[in-house]
Structures are given as C-alpha cells and as structure tokens.
Specification:
Blueprint: H1 18-43, H2 101-205, H3 211-216, H4 222-234, E1 246-253, E2 259-266, H5 271-283, E3 298-304
Antiparallel strand pairs: 1-2, 1-3
Keywords: Membrane, Transmembrane, Transmembrane helix
Organism: Duganella lactea
Biased composition (Pro residues): 82-92
C-alpha cells in the first residue's frame, strides 16, 4: 500500500479479511444466545427462602443500580435529602402502687374539709369588707347630712338675725316717727292753747265778755252736747253688744272745734270699748259748734253703749 501524497485527499484503506470478520460475528451471536437460554432456565427454578435477622437499628438504603449507558449527557445529581432520625421510643412510667381505699377516703375527706374551711374564710373576708364599706358609706352620709344641717341652721339663724335686726330697726324708726309726730302735735296744741289763753286773758283784761267768756261759763247746752255725741257716734267702731258699758271723758278743744286733748274720768271696764271711744273722739275733730258759733273749751260727756247704737 502506498501512502498518500502530502496534501492529497485521505482514502480509507481497503479491508482484505472480510470472511474472518463474518465468522467472528456469527460466533459471538451464538454465544449470546446460549447465555440467554441459560439465564431463562435459571430464572424458572423455585426460589430458595432465606431469612435474616437485622440487629442494627439504623437502616441504610442500598446503592441504586448503575444506569445503562446513555449517549445523552447525564443530568446533574439532585441534592441528597437527609431524613430525620426516627423518634426515640416512649418510655412508660412504672405503674403507681395502689393506695389503700381507707387512706384514699380519709385524704378526700380531709381535702374537702380544707376546701370548705377556705371557702368559709373567703366568705367571711368578703362579708367583712362589705360591712366595712357599708359602715364607711353610712359614716360619710351622716357627716354630709350633719354638715348640710349645720349649714342650713347657720343660714336660718343668720336670716333670723337679719329679720330681727330689720324689725328692730323698723320698730325704732316707727317709734321715732311716732315720737316726733307726738312732739309736733303736742307743740302745735301747746302753741294753739297758749294763743287761746293769751286771747282770753287779753279779753278779760279789757273787761269785755266775748266769745271765749261765753264758751267757758254757764251750763252745757243739751243740744250742743247731743251734736258732739252724734258726730263721735258716727265714727265709733265697736262690735260687742253690752248695754251696761259706759265711759266718761273730758274733751279739751280750741275755739275752732279742734280737739287738743282728752282725759278719761270714768272707765267702762272694757279696754276695747274705751279704745273705741277714744279713736272715735280723735276722728271727730273738729267738733260741732253751738248755734251762736261758740264752743266750750272743756266739755264732759258720758258715752253709754246703749245710746251709741
């Protein structure tokens, strides 16, 4: 065989042993068929039972068989999953020794008595707290009521004092006004009386007899006295009906008939009737005059109730 020239095309050399290669292939196939027949015959035999006892607690997985050859590229191996170890075997506690029924009953009774005692103590504690709270509330209410009553009493006392002071002040004011009025009336009456006396004295000194001389002399005219009593009767306010009552008064008046004084000479025995006569006399000023226009400076009149109806 000649070698190829440098730079020329490559040529496959010609095979000269073709018969030998075919014989070898037939021999190989025959051997393969023999092995297949033997293998099938061996698989049909009855299997032999084998027993094995494993003492090791750890279980290991058998290695997997090698995969057949594959022209394709092998995939990347997956990460191995670590299996957790099996749980430890549960250790059972040894059975407790049986208790004597009598002892168990005594223990139950003792426990029940202790529970009842604790319950009674708790109830007593709660009751004591409730009683103390109720007493505290009652005390607070009593204190509040006492305080309110004291404030009310103080306020009422203050109002009473203010009223008493106001009444006393009003009373003093009324008394002062009454006194001032009485003084003014007395001064006016004294002034009028002095003027009348001066006039009478002056008339007497001249030796003349005028109206004043006529008013103080002689006997009281019956018609004149009746006219005065009639006016006083018209102003009398008295509701009692006792005909035995009778009072006498001396009335002092000015020439104009104005009353400047009265004096009780006989009491009727009834203060109410006497006061009614005095009020009626005061209201009747000025008193009526005589027919000639004169008056009596002092005139005494009897006021019998049976005549004053």
């Amino acid at each position: 065989m000649k070698s190829a020239t440098a730079g020329g095309p490559y040529k496959v050399p010609r095979q000269r042993n073709g018969v030998r290669a075919g014989s070898l292939a037939v021999a190989v196939h025959a051997v393969l068929l023999l092995f297949l027949w033997v293998g099938v015959s061996w698989q049909n035999n009855d299997p032999v039972e084998v027993q094995a006892e494993i003492w090791d607690m750890k279980v290991q997985d058998a290695a997997p068989p090698a995969p057949p050859a594959d022209p394709t590229p092998e995939p990347e191996p997956e990460p191995e999953v670590v299996k957790p170890p099996p749980p430890a075997p549960k250790v059972e506690a040894p059975p407790e020794p049986k208790e004597d029924p009598e002892i168990a009953l005594q223990r139950i009774k003792k426990k029940k008595l202790e529970e009842e005692r604790l319950e009674k103590l708790e109830q007593a504690r709660l009751k004591k707290e409730a009683d103390e709270k109720e007493k505290l509330l009652a005390k607070q209410k009593a204190e509040q009521k006492a305080k309110a009553d004291k404030e009310k009493a103080d306020q009422e006392e203050k109002e009473e004092k203010e009223k008493a002071l106001a009444a006393e002040k009003e009373k003093k004011k009324a008394a002062a006004e009454k006194l001032a009025k009485e003084k003014a009336d007395k001064a006016a009456k004294d002034k009028a009386f002095a003027a009348e006396m001066s006039r009478i004295t002056g008339a007497a000194a001249k030796g003349t007899t005028g109206t004043a001389a006529q008013s103080t002399g002689g006997r009281t005219d019956g018609g004149y006295a009746a006219a005065i009593k009639a006016k006083i009767k018209s102003n009398l306010v008295y509701g009692a009906d006792d005909d035995s009552l009778s009072a006498s008064y001396v009335i002092t008046q000015l020439p104009t008939g104005e009353i400047i004084g009265m004096r009780k000479t006989k009491s009727s025995g009834s203060t109410a009737y006497d006061n009614a006569i005095e009020n009626a006399i005061t209201k009747s000023s000025p008193l009526p005059k005589k027919k000639d226009g004169t008056v009596e400076r002092e005139i005494t009149l009897d006021f019998k109730l049976k005549e004053m109806h």
